[in-house]
Amino acid sequence: MLLFCLLILPVMAKDETIGILATVNGSPVTLADVMELTYTKEAQFPQFYKGEVLQKELWKARKEALETVIERKLFFEEFKKNEYKLPRDMVESNMDALLKAFNVTSRNELENILREEGKNMGEFKSKIHESIAVDALIYARCYRDVFVTPKDVNSYYDSHKSEFTSPASVRLSVITIKKTGVHKQNFEELSKALERSLKSGDLETFKDSVSLYSDGPNLEKGGDIGWISVPELRKEFTDIIKDYKKDTVYGPADTNEAIYFLRITDYTDSKVKTYQDCKSAIKEKLTEEAKNKSYDDYAKDMKAKAYIVYCI
Asked: Which of 37, 55, 154, 212 has its CA 20 to 30 A from that of 239?
Protein backbone atom coordinates (compact mmCIF):
# COMPACT_ATOMS: atom_id res chain seq x y z
CA MET A 1 0.00 0.00 0.00
CA LEU A 2 2.95 2.29 0.51
CA LEU A 3 3.34 2.48 -3.24
CA PHE A 4 0.07 4.33 -3.47
CA CYS A 5 1.88 7.31 -1.97
CA LEU A 6 2.86 7.88 -5.58
CA LEU A 7 -0.68 9.11 -6.04
CA ILE A 8 -0.84 11.41 -3.02
CA LEU A 9 2.75 12.58 -2.60
CA PRO A 10 2.75 16.27 -3.49
CA VAL A 11 4.93 17.48 -6.31
CA MET A 12 8.08 18.70 -4.60
CA ALA A 13 10.46 21.39 -5.62
CA LYS A 14 13.03 20.20 -8.12
CA ASP A 15 15.91 20.27 -5.65
CA GLU A 16 13.91 18.21 -3.17
CA THR A 17 12.92 15.62 -5.77
CA ILE A 18 16.46 15.04 -6.99
CA GLY A 19 18.18 15.58 -3.62
CA ILE A 20 20.41 12.53 -3.21
CA LEU A 21 20.58 11.14 0.32
CA ALA A 22 22.71 8.09 -0.47
CA THR A 23 23.99 5.89 -3.27
CA VAL A 24 23.77 2.10 -3.31
CA ASN A 25 26.29 0.47 -5.62
CA GLY A 26 26.17 3.69 -7.63
CA SER A 27 22.37 3.94 -7.72
CA PRO A 28 21.00 7.10 -6.05
CA VAL A 29 18.45 7.18 -3.24
CA THR A 30 16.59 10.49 -3.35
CA LEU A 31 14.48 12.39 -0.86
CA ALA A 32 11.45 11.50 -3.01
CA ASP A 33 12.23 7.79 -2.57
CA VAL A 34 12.33 8.23 1.19
CA MET A 35 9.22 10.37 1.38
CA GLU A 36 7.19 7.68 -0.36
CA LEU A 37 7.57 5.86 2.97
CA THR A 38 7.34 8.82 5.36
CA TYR A 39 4.75 11.09 3.74
CA THR A 40 1.76 9.91 5.81
CA LYS A 41 3.70 10.05 9.07
CA GLU A 42 5.21 13.44 8.27
CA ALA A 43 1.77 14.89 7.58
CA GLN A 44 0.81 14.12 11.19
CA PHE A 45 3.96 15.47 12.83
CA PRO A 46 2.90 19.17 12.99
CA GLN A 47 0.04 18.14 15.29
CA PHE A 48 2.55 16.95 17.88
CA TYR A 49 5.81 18.80 17.28
CA LYS A 50 6.93 22.37 16.63
CA GLY A 51 10.13 24.21 15.69
CA GLU A 52 13.40 22.38 16.23
CA VAL A 53 11.68 19.33 17.69
CA LEU A 54 9.59 19.01 14.52
CA GLN A 55 12.71 19.14 12.32
CA LYS A 56 14.45 16.58 14.53
CA GLU A 57 11.53 14.16 14.30
CA LEU A 58 11.26 14.65 10.53
CA TRP A 59 14.88 13.74 9.99
CA LYS A 60 14.68 10.86 12.43
CA ALA A 61 11.78 9.38 10.43
CA ARG A 62 13.58 10.03 7.14
CA LYS A 63 16.82 8.42 8.30
CA GLU A 64 14.96 5.30 9.41
CA ALA A 65 13.13 5.20 6.08
CA LEU A 66 16.41 5.74 4.23
CA GLU A 67 17.75 2.48 5.66
CA THR A 68 14.59 0.69 4.53
CA VAL A 69 14.92 2.10 1.01
CA ILE A 70 18.58 1.05 0.86
CA GLU A 71 17.75 -2.46 2.00
CA ARG A 72 14.93 -2.81 -0.50
CA LYS A 73 17.20 -1.61 -3.30
CA LEU A 74 19.67 -4.34 -2.37
CA PHE A 75 16.95 -6.97 -2.34
CA PHE A 76 15.79 -5.83 -5.78
CA GLU A 77 19.35 -5.96 -7.10
CA GLU A 78 19.56 -9.57 -5.92
CA PHE A 79 16.21 -10.34 -7.53
CA LYS A 80 17.42 -9.01 -10.88
CA LYS A 81 20.89 -10.57 -10.55
CA ASN A 82 19.33 -14.00 -10.14
CA GLU A 83 16.92 -13.33 -13.02
CA TYR A 84 13.89 -14.26 -10.97
CA LYS A 85 10.49 -13.74 -12.58
CA LEU A 86 7.08 -12.84 -11.22
CA PRO A 87 3.89 -14.45 -12.50
CA ARG A 88 2.63 -12.44 -15.47
CA ASP A 89 -0.67 -11.37 -13.93
CA MET A 90 0.67 -10.51 -10.45
CA VAL A 91 1.37 -6.84 -11.16
CA GLU A 92 -2.00 -6.35 -12.84
CA SER A 93 -3.94 -8.01 -10.04
CA ASN A 94 -2.12 -5.92 -7.43
CA MET A 95 -2.88 -2.78 -9.39
CA ASP A 96 -6.57 -3.73 -9.43
CA ALA A 97 -6.50 -4.29 -5.67
CA LEU A 98 -4.89 -0.88 -5.12
CA LEU A 99 -7.45 0.86 -7.30
CA LYS A 100 -10.29 -0.75 -5.38
CA ALA A 101 -8.76 0.03 -1.99
CA PHE A 102 -8.42 3.73 -2.87
CA ASN A 103 -11.72 4.04 -4.73
CA VAL A 104 -10.13 4.71 -8.10
CA THR A 105 -12.75 3.47 -10.54
CA SER A 106 -10.71 2.84 -13.69
CA ARG A 107 -7.26 2.75 -15.26
CA ASN A 108 -8.15 5.97 -17.10
CA GLU A 109 -8.81 7.70 -13.78
CA LEU A 110 -5.50 6.38 -12.48
CA GLU A 111 -3.69 7.73 -15.55
CA ASN A 112 -5.26 11.15 -15.00
CA ILE A 113 -4.18 11.19 -11.34
CA LEU A 114 -0.65 10.18 -12.27
CA ARG A 115 -0.49 12.78 -15.06
CA GLU A 116 -1.53 15.54 -12.63
CA GLU A 117 1.37 14.52 -10.37
CA GLY A 118 3.86 14.47 -13.24
CA LYS A 119 4.04 10.68 -13.37
CA ASN A 120 2.98 8.00 -15.84
CA MET A 121 1.54 4.49 -15.88
CA GLY A 122 4.83 2.87 -16.85
CA GLU A 123 6.57 4.34 -13.82
CA PHE A 124 3.71 3.26 -11.58
CA LYS A 125 3.77 -0.32 -12.87
CA SER A 126 7.54 -0.47 -12.45
CA LYS A 127 7.20 0.59 -8.83
CA ILE A 128 4.57 -2.05 -8.17
CA HIS A 129 6.70 -4.71 -9.88
CA GLU A 130 9.71 -3.76 -7.77
CA SER A 131 7.72 -3.77 -4.56
CA ILE A 132 6.21 -7.20 -5.21
CA ALA A 133 9.57 -8.61 -6.24
CA VAL A 134 11.25 -7.31 -3.09
CA ASP A 135 8.48 -8.59 -0.82
CA ALA A 136 8.65 -12.01 -2.47
CA LEU A 137 12.41 -12.21 -2.04
CA ILE A 138 12.24 -11.06 1.59
CA TYR A 139 9.74 -13.83 2.24
CA ALA A 140 11.91 -16.44 0.52
CA ARG A 141 15.19 -15.37 2.13
CA CYS A 142 14.04 -14.27 5.59
CA TYR A 143 10.56 -15.50 6.50
CA ARG A 144 9.76 -18.79 4.81
CA ASP A 145 11.98 -20.94 7.03
CA VAL A 146 10.99 -19.30 10.30
CA PHE A 147 9.21 -21.87 12.45
CA VAL A 148 8.34 -21.65 16.13
CA THR A 149 7.81 -25.04 17.75
CA PRO A 150 5.37 -25.85 20.58
CA LYS A 151 8.45 -26.47 22.72
CA ASP A 152 9.64 -22.90 22.05
CA VAL A 153 6.23 -21.53 23.04
CA ASN A 154 6.02 -23.63 26.20
CA SER A 155 9.56 -22.70 27.23
CA TYR A 156 8.80 -19.00 26.81
CA TYR A 157 5.63 -19.34 28.87
CA ASP A 158 7.44 -21.13 31.71
CA SER A 159 10.25 -18.57 31.86
CA HIS A 160 8.07 -15.44 31.54
CA LYS A 161 5.20 -16.16 33.91
CA SER A 162 5.22 -12.57 35.14
CA GLU A 163 4.12 -11.39 31.68
CA PHE A 164 0.99 -13.49 31.97
CA THR A 165 0.12 -12.69 35.56
CA SER A 166 -2.60 -10.20 36.42
CA PRO A 167 -1.66 -8.56 39.75
CA ALA A 168 -4.02 -8.53 42.69
CA SER A 169 -6.43 -5.60 42.53
CA VAL A 170 -8.54 -3.85 45.12
CA ARG A 171 -11.53 -1.55 44.84
CA LEU A 172 -11.34 1.20 47.44
CA SER A 173 -13.57 3.85 48.90
CA VAL A 174 -11.57 6.57 50.60
CA ILE A 175 -12.10 9.31 53.16
CA THR A 176 -9.45 12.01 52.84
CA ILE A 177 -8.87 14.46 55.68
CA LYS A 178 -6.33 17.07 54.56
CA LYS A 179 -4.03 18.41 57.25
CA THR A 180 -4.43 21.93 55.90
CA GLY A 181 -8.08 21.53 54.92
CA VAL A 182 -11.35 22.67 56.46
CA HIS A 183 -10.89 20.35 59.46
CA LYS A 184 -7.39 21.48 60.41
CA GLN A 185 -8.59 23.01 63.70
CA ASN A 186 -9.95 19.72 65.05
CA PHE A 187 -7.85 17.38 62.91
CA GLU A 188 -6.67 15.04 65.69
CA GLU A 189 -10.09 14.77 67.34
CA LEU A 190 -11.82 14.03 64.04
CA SER A 191 -9.26 11.37 63.18
CA LYS A 192 -9.83 9.52 66.44
CA ALA A 193 -13.62 9.84 66.19
CA LEU A 194 -13.62 8.41 62.65
CA GLU A 195 -11.33 5.57 63.67
CA ARG A 196 -13.86 4.54 66.30
CA SER A 197 -17.03 4.97 64.22
CA LEU A 198 -15.74 3.26 61.08
CA LYS A 199 -14.42 0.11 62.76
CA SER A 200 -17.55 -1.88 61.95
CA GLY A 201 -17.11 -1.42 58.21
CA ASP A 202 -20.76 -0.43 57.87
CA LEU A 203 -21.36 0.96 54.39
CA GLU A 204 -23.89 3.64 55.32
CA THR A 205 -21.71 4.94 58.16
CA PHE A 206 -18.78 5.18 55.78
CA LYS A 207 -20.85 6.97 53.11
CA ASP A 208 -22.18 9.45 55.67
CA SER A 209 -18.64 10.17 56.88
CA VAL A 210 -17.49 10.74 53.30
CA SER A 211 -20.27 13.27 52.76
CA LEU A 212 -19.63 15.09 56.04
CA TYR A 213 -15.86 15.12 56.30
CA SER A 214 -13.92 13.98 53.21
CA ASP A 215 -11.75 16.39 51.24
CA GLY A 216 -11.28 13.77 48.55
CA PRO A 217 -12.93 12.95 45.20
CA ASN A 218 -16.19 11.19 44.34
CA LEU A 219 -18.16 12.28 47.38
CA GLU A 220 -21.41 11.48 45.58
CA LYS A 221 -20.16 7.89 45.13
CA GLY A 222 -19.23 7.35 48.75
CA GLY A 223 -15.55 8.06 48.08
CA ASP A 224 -15.26 5.18 45.59
CA ILE A 225 -12.02 5.56 43.62
CA GLY A 226 -12.41 2.34 41.63
CA TRP A 227 -10.02 -0.53 41.04
CA ILE A 228 -6.31 -0.18 41.76
CA SER A 229 -3.55 -2.70 41.26
CA VAL A 230 -2.23 -3.66 44.70
CA PRO A 231 1.43 -3.13 43.67
CA GLU A 232 0.49 0.46 42.75
CA LEU A 233 -0.94 1.33 46.17
CA ARG A 234 0.91 3.87 48.29
CA LYS A 235 3.21 2.36 50.90
CA GLU A 236 1.28 4.19 53.63
CA PHE A 237 -1.82 2.27 52.53
CA THR A 238 -0.23 -1.18 52.30
CA ASP A 239 1.41 -0.64 55.71
CA ILE A 240 -1.99 -0.56 57.45
CA ILE A 241 -3.96 -3.07 55.33
CA LYS A 242 -3.61 -6.43 57.10
CA ASP A 243 -5.70 -8.32 54.55
CA TYR A 244 -8.07 -7.43 51.76
CA LYS A 245 -11.27 -8.75 53.24
CA LYS A 246 -14.33 -7.15 51.68
CA ASP A 247 -16.16 -4.43 53.72
CA THR A 248 -13.19 -3.93 56.06
CA VAL A 249 -12.12 -0.38 56.96
CA TYR A 250 -8.51 0.54 57.67
CA GLY A 251 -7.12 3.81 58.91
CA PRO A 252 -5.95 6.29 59.54
CA ALA A 253 -3.13 6.05 57.00
CA ASP A 254 -0.92 9.00 57.86
CA THR A 255 0.86 10.83 55.03
CA ASN A 256 2.52 14.23 54.72
CA GLU A 257 -0.56 15.86 53.22
CA ALA A 258 -3.49 14.04 54.83
CA ILE A 259 -4.86 11.04 56.67
CA TYR A 260 -6.91 8.44 54.85
CA PHE A 261 -9.52 5.89 55.83
CA LEU A 262 -9.80 3.03 53.35
CA ARG A 263 -12.78 0.76 52.86
CA ILE A 264 -12.21 -2.49 50.94
CA THR A 265 -15.15 -2.59 48.54
CA ASP A 266 -13.94 -5.59 46.54
CA TYR A 267 -10.79 -7.58 45.86
CA THR A 268 -9.42 -9.96 43.23
CA ASP A 269 -6.32 -12.04 43.79
CA SER A 270 -3.46 -12.24 41.32
CA LYS A 271 -4.09 -14.66 38.49
CA VAL A 272 -1.80 -16.40 36.06
CA LYS A 273 -3.25 -16.89 32.57
CA THR A 274 -3.18 -20.51 31.46
CA TYR A 275 -0.86 -21.77 28.77
CA GLN A 276 -3.87 -22.44 26.55
CA ASP A 277 -4.94 -18.79 26.88
CA CYS A 278 -1.48 -17.51 25.98
CA LYS A 279 0.01 -19.90 23.45
CA SER A 280 -1.32 -18.21 20.31
CA ALA A 281 -0.08 -14.77 21.38
CA ILE A 282 3.30 -16.22 22.39
CA LYS A 283 3.72 -18.00 19.07
CA GLU A 284 2.86 -14.80 17.20
CA LYS A 285 5.36 -12.82 19.28
CA LEU A 286 8.18 -15.35 18.85
CA THR A 287 7.49 -15.67 15.13
CA GLU A 288 7.62 -11.92 14.64
CA GLU A 289 10.87 -11.68 16.63
CA ALA A 290 12.42 -14.50 14.60
CA LYS A 291 11.36 -12.89 11.31
CA ASN A 292 12.80 -9.54 12.36
CA LYS A 293 16.09 -11.13 13.38
CA SER A 294 16.30 -13.10 10.15
CA TYR A 295 15.60 -9.95 8.13
CA ASP A 296 18.08 -7.83 10.10
CA ASP A 297 20.82 -10.44 9.72
CA TYR A 298 20.24 -10.80 5.99
CA ALA A 299 20.07 -7.02 5.44
CA LYS A 300 23.24 -6.52 7.45
CA ASP A 301 25.04 -9.09 5.31
CA MET A 302 23.84 -7.43 2.07
CA LYS A 303 24.95 -4.00 3.27
CA ALA A 304 28.38 -5.33 4.23
CA LYS A 305 28.89 -6.54 0.66
CA ALA A 306 27.49 -3.41 -0.98
CA TYR A 307 29.11 -0.05 -1.71
CA ILE A 308 26.93 2.47 0.12
CA VAL A 309 27.71 6.20 0.31
CA TYR A 310 25.64 8.45 2.58
CA CYS A 311 25.26 12.07 1.50
CA ILE A 312 23.69 13.45 4.70
From this structure: 212
